[in-house]
Amino acid sequence: MTGDGTPVLLLHSTVCDRRMWDPQVPVLAGAGCQVIRCDFPGFGETPMPTESQNEADDVSELLDRLDVGATAVIAASGGGQVGLEFASRWPARVTSLILLCTAWGGHERGPELRAFGAREDELLEAGDVAAAVELNVETWVGPAADEATRDRVRVMQRHAFEVQLAAVDVPPSIGHETELKAITAPTLLVSGAHDLPDFRQTAAELAGLLPGSQHVELDWAGHLPSLERPDLVNPLLLSFLRDRP
Question: What angle do CA 30, 203, 58 make, to 5 degrees?
Fold first, then answer.
């Protein structure tokens, strides 16, 4: 947690961990926000679960422990799928929702995303973690990012692989259907022109299903725009959050 003021919860991509938000935290805190970020199970400093769990439940319990009733939510990729579920199950707790290149369970995977998953599985099964890390960096980090940013993603993705591959007898996660019609928060959907088609299509699909939502596609961005060009994304985040409770 950083800063004081209006709560803003940051949910990371499953290529990264909570450190992906380093470029956003001081800017949001400086704008009068209380910034909350967490690691999902198996990422960053959070170990793999020892019993069945649901990440949206985890988010709700975390906010309860912090005595945060309602918050803005900024979520990326796999974190966006958690954010959508959280906003649909507890709509009164989400004041606004910003989804960056979000995943969504209602979208059927296309050939590019299926091919990526198959290749990643193949490399990990062969024990070639380094190649799997590079596959993720090449796939998810857009052309606008510098080498230092690519290195940051390498560090986070490698750590996630190490934590997850070392786990044994991992219990299944608890699934809940996301009811989009229940979401009441004003929503900004951000996609990247250099991202895989799945995530661009997901943003467009959700924009047609979430009343009052906005969709912005960034012509320079890949899958992780908040890391690739924080100087361009941070003003977009602040502009959408401004004047909202």
Answer: 60
pLDDT for 175: 77
Q: Is pLDDT above 60 for 30?
A: yes
Asked if pLDDT for residue 170 goes beyond 90, the answer is no
Whole-model pTM: value is 0.96
Instruction: Give the pLDDT confidence score for residue 212 in this predicted structure.
Output: 84
| Closest residue by Cα to residue 77 from 165, 195, 230 | 195
CA distances to 33, 105, 187 from 200, rounded to whole Å, are: 29, 14, 16
How far is residue 204's CA from residue 190's CA, in Å, rounded to a whole number?
Answer: 9
- The Cα-based distances of 68 to 165, 181, 230 in angstroms read 34, 24, 27
The domains found in the chain, sorted by start residue, are 6-241 (3.40.50.1820)
In whole angstroms, what is the distance from residue 95 CA to residue 245 CA? 6
pLDDT at 27: 98
CA distance 15 to 13: 5
Distances (CA, A) of 245 to 23, 32, 99, 209, 212: 23, 12, 18, 23, 17
